Amino acid sequence: MVSYLQVQNLTRRVGDRTLFQNLSFSIAERQKVGLIAQNGTGKSTLLNILAGKDTADEGNVIYHNDLRIGYLEQAPHYPMDMTVLEACFWHGNETTNLIREYEHCMATPGNPGLQEILDKMDHQKAWDYENRSKTILSKLSITEFHKPLCQLSGGQLKRVALANVLILEPDFLILDEPTNHLDIQMIEWLEGYLNRSNITLLMVTHDRYFLDNICSVILELDDETVYTYRGNYSYYLEKRQERIDVARSEITRANNLYRTELDWMRRQPQARGHKARYREEAFYELEKVAKKRIEEQQVRLEMKSAYIGSKIFEAEYVSKKFPLKDPTSTATEKVILKDFYYNFSRYEKMGIVGGNGTGKSTFVKMLLGEVKPDSGRFVIGETVKFGYYSQDGMQFDEQMKVIDAVRRIAEFVDLGGGRHLSAMQFLQHFMFTPLQQQNYIYKLSGGEKRRLHLCTVLMQNPNFLVLDEPTNDLDIVTLQILEQYLQDFHGCVIVVSHDRYFMDKVVDHLLVFNGEGDIKDFPGNYSQYREWEKLEERKPEPVSKTSQAAAPSKAKPRDDQKRKLTFKEKQEFAQLEQDIERLEAEKTQIESSLSSGTISVDKITELSKRLPKLMEELDEKSMRWLELSEWA
Question: What's the structural domain count of the chain?
């Protein structure tokens, strides 16, 4: 396999901090590689160096000759006075330069060199560049090709930039968080596009299903070096744990030997000149290993939430629409909600999914009172205390230290049972080391600021968490901590997210926003919803009455044409609702008992055995309820 990229002994420092040191790896033709690291460890810096937009302090980046390289930055920049379509020609890539050369040649008397340019145009597939641009832009829900970039949102601009690098059809593609600002349908389209393509790929993404389905190699940037795993994300998780276990064993062995060697080094220092120099040098190497620390988030952070009553919120026939200013559209208004009714249950963990622009964030803002409905109302329970993690992030005083920003909210976090965490200990759970806590906020990366924003929300001890796109710009390690926190959270949760893996881990119920006020209530997680959708798509179309009349008399109508619940099925359906409610109550009781810290070891063992069986029974009954609900 031809090597497309060789990275040799790359080192980069920022001030007195080393991001990575003597980094070496290679990427071969057609390999699809995912880069994983914690926020602030230099992922985007490394990609900028590989794309030629930044320089390393030491080392070399060597590409195979004549490669076309496409790079999607985390925060792309364009002149704001150009249109969407003009932006597709702005990059100055080989194809667009050739198109400009052709236009210049046609405008020059005699058309010098026209035949050579025409041959190049054929070779570069330059003739259909504009059509290709419009097709990919449309797949990413950018259809107003002549709209000025200054009128686009940040998410739309990122999608224009993504379309740009795909239109170029590069040999080597570098993507920094490509799934940010894409809805689930766009993510699945991009997933299919990259899987079908023979392109060589290096990308940073927090979307674990995306990584799992596309990448065959994972690079992990950790402890200033890089580790290579020849497999997808699931393989990486398994082998990473093996690596950590081996490293821990080595550190334990080194510590045992270090004590012996330290005693030897301390004895008779005046005679040390007669001792073997190689043993002294080996001692200092051993000391480095013995003093290594593997920072792993092992403890589940279970915080006590404020008491929440049985009344949470009720959306009473809420409607909301906005006027449309698009002259190309025949519609005059955009409907977000239309006579929407919903009664939110205690301890419910609900996900909200749907295409961009269908009103998900508007719904959240109406619930929080930031946007007023046109009609209807939200009735909020008296005990509800919201914690809101917004898509826009939080405005911090950049000159403040990280620890001070958190202490302004609370000095301690109540874990329940008389246990407390200091602000410093709480930040350490979210991977802010004591040294990083003394950093000024302006020194943090974008992902670290998002992580700090998350800490400030959770420290306020809410009993109802509303998380709007929490996975954007958070690294995978932080997402795993957040997932565990939400699974243990004794309160209500609403999550708006396009991260399928995160939704599957956290929510047990979905509101699907289809646009124009059409909202589907689905009892399950995202993967279950997709399975249900596929089953619906495979269902045969009902036969029309005209077709039935034309059919021979002996032909019986299909069972699914007039399918109704039988008497026994109605009884089963009613019983299932009671059973599911009972099992949910038992599940809540078990989880509460296990986290209380007041029950005996025998009882813990008994409940731990019961819980997985209960979950299996609950899933089985929920799927049967879903099946029968189609005909109810």
Answer: 5
- The better pLDDT of the pair 175, 570 is held by 175
| Bigger pLDDT: 317 vs 459 | 317
- Asked whether residue 446 falls in the same domain as residue 510, the answer is yes
Q: Is residue 391 a contact partner of residue 472, using CB atoms and an 8 Å limit?
A: yes
Are 189 and 45 members of one domain? yes
The residues, any chain, with a CB within 8 Å of residue 372's CB and separated by 6 or more, are 366
In this structure, are 519 and 582 located in the same domain?
no
Structural domain includes residue 615: yes
What is the number of other CB atoms lying within 10 angstroms of the CB of residue 202?
26
Instruction: Give residue 135's domain range.
Output: 82-161
In Å, how far are 155, 192, 311, 348, 630 from 492, measured between CA atoms?
Answer: 28, 35, 11, 5, 28
**408, 491: one domain:** yes
When comparing pLDDT for 292 and 561, which is higher? 292
| CB within 8 Å of 523: residues ≥ 6 apart | 508, 509, 622, 625, 626
Closest CA to 160 of 238, 84, 244: 84
Closest CA to 463 of 241, 233, 238, 305: 305
Burial class (CB in 10 A: 0-12, 13-18, 19+), 499: buried
Q: What is the pLDDT of residues 185-212, one digit of tens each?
A: 899 999 999 999 999 999 999 999 999 9
510/497 Cα distance (integer angstroms): 11
How much is the pTM?
0.74
Confidence of residue 284 (pLDDT cuts 50, 70, 90): low
- Say if CB 191 and CB 220 are below 8 A apart: no
